[in-house]
Amino acid sequence: MRISELERRTGVTRDTLRYYEKQGLIREVGRSGNNYRDYPEQAVARVSMVRQLKGLGFSLNEIRELLDAVRSDRIDCLQGAAVMARKRALVDARIRELRAVSELLKQEQARLEASAREHGLV
């Protein structure tokens, strides 16, 4: 598929797709007879995965390591698993932090609603 279709299907700009390709995040990109990039169908899932991992705080280098490990059954899988475990621990810690903030907000909301009722505002 051409870059315009990959852009449309993933919501990622052409410049970003080209950058991902240069960084080795998208591979197996061919060239058509008129020298246009020809992306394989699996590029859609790959770009989606890159976006998700990036959203979770993974660096592009970490994403490349993980994608390389997933792409092959090399010993590097252990390294990829270690990177994933470290990031997962960070994500889990962030979830705990967000739950604590949510609980504080819930308590403050309840206090404000009670105050509004007490003053006849609702």
From TrEMBL:
InterPro entries: DNA-bd_dom_put_sf, MerR-type_HTH_dom, MerR_fam
Domain HTH merR-type: 1-69
Key words of the record: DNA-binding, Repressor, Transcription, Transcription regulation
Highest taxon of source: Bacteria
UniProt cross-references to Gene3D superfamilies, sorted A to Z: 1.10.1660.10
One MF annotation (Gene Ontology) recorded for this entry: DNA-binding transcription factor activity
Name of a matching Pfam family: MerR_1
Positions in coiled-coil regions: none
UniProt-listed SUPFAM superfamilies: Putative DNA-binding domain
The protein, known as: Transcriptional regulator, MerR family
Annotated source species: Marinobacter nauticus (strain ATCC 700491 / DSM 11845 / VT8) (Marinobacter aquaeolei)
